[in-house]
Every structure is written in C-alpha cells, then in structure tokens.
Amino acid sequence: MTNQTESFILTSYNIHKGMSPLNRQVKMQGIAQALDEVGSDVLCLQEVQGQNLKRNMQYNEYPDQSQHEWFGEFLHLQNSYGKNSEYENGHHGNAVLSRFPLDPKHNVNITVNKLEQRGVLHCEVQPVGWDMPVVVLCAHLNLFERDRIKQYQAISDYVRHEIGADQPLILAGDFNDWKKMSCDKLASSLGMTEAFKRCHGKLLPTFPAKLPVLSLDRIYVRNLSVKRAWVHTGKPWSQLSDHLPISAELGPL
C-alpha cells in the first residue's frame, strides 16, 4: 500500500532569469541551493530563461542548458517549460517543476500587446494516492492594469472551457497586481481562494526583494485546502532575484 500524500508544498517564484536584481551577477547556483533547502514538491517559476546566447558568452557560470532543465536536474524534479517571449539571443517563459509525476498540457498565450509577451503554462501533477491529478497553471501577467483585465478574461475563459469544475486547481505566479485591484475578481468569478488571504486575511509583500512593499505574487486554489502560506524573506532570498518566493501547503478538501 503506497502512502498517500496528505499535503504538499507549492512554491511560486519569479527568478528574474537567474540574475541578481540589477542584472550584474548570475544567481542560478544560489537560487537552486535555496530552493533545495525549501524542498517544495511543486515549483511555479516565472521569467525562466530557455536560452540566452549573449549571457552564455558573457558569464562563465551561466549554464548552456535551459534553466528549467538545469533546475530540474539540480533539484531532481520533473520539469515543463512554456516559451512566452522570443528575441534575437534567446527566449524566456514560465516553468513548472514537480516531485510528482508531471503531465504538461498546454501553454496558453495571453499576450495583449507587442511589448509584453505573456503566457500561462498548464500542467497536471499527480500526488501519490490522489484520485484526481492537480491542475497547475503558472502565470505571468502584464504591468498595466488595462492589459491585465484582458488577461484575466482570457484565463477565466480558458479555465471554464478546459478544466473540470471538480478538479483540484492551482493558479499561481506573478500577477503584477500591485494596486490589488482586479486579481480577486478573476478568482471570485472562478470560485478560487487566495492562499494568503485564507491564512492571514491579507496579501503579503513580495517586491522588491530587498525591502518588499508590493504584493505582486499570488497562489489561488480551488477544490483544495490551504494549511499555511508564507513568504520566504531575508537572506539569501533578498539577494537572489527582484521578487521573493511564496509558498503554500495544500491538501485535499
């Protein structure tokens, strides 16, 4: 009889393409070691560099490999990548990494203007002994509110059409919703709960990492219980990316 997974930890983190907040140093090793210590079961990463030929030439410690594959090997996790933004020297996007069996489904294009190519990576993970897989949507949204409103609609339409109402669902990532204006409208329209609001009654700041004042990152869930939620603060996190990572311990209802 296999032991059933009673709960698991999901971490969402904008890794700033593996570079320090001001892009002066490569922070891949530090990020990987810090994530290894956390030991999360599922990672939703944003600004993951699939390729950057310029930085490969510039920095010895910049891996030749795609970052999602590199982190997957370092952390012994399965990985999936959704390319959002392509340019002359490479491309970046979102990634989901998982200790559980991982089934990549679709990369949803939610781009609404030419300046910001954005996406939502749809994967499923299968915790041990669970009847249903958990749908994981890893998102990175635009900087402007008017753009995000269109993106909320695109995400909402996608969830309604593609994901069963009874399936355990997580929507996590960098929502850039610094005014906290419309993110919750998306969640409430889909019957989702934000992990920090559930546990703390409010969102907690995640940006900038050194002195966080804005709450940009979110973990929304449906058909799952939230046992606890926390921001990873202080060192080494304050020196690794421009965002702080957030985690939630989730279980079945």
UniProtKB/TrEMBL annotation:
All residue ranges annotated as the Endonuclease/exonuclease/phosphatase domain in the record: 12-243
Taxonomy, superkingdom: Bacteria
GO biological process: GPI anchor biosynthetic process
Stored Gene3D superfamilies: Endonuclease/exonuclease/phosphatase
InterPro entries on file: Endo/exonu/phosph_ase_sf, Endo/exonuclease/phosphatase, GPI-anchor_lipid_remodeler
GO molecular function: catalytic activity
GO cellular component: membrane
Protein name: EEP domain-containing protein
Organism, scientific name: Psychrobacter frigidicola
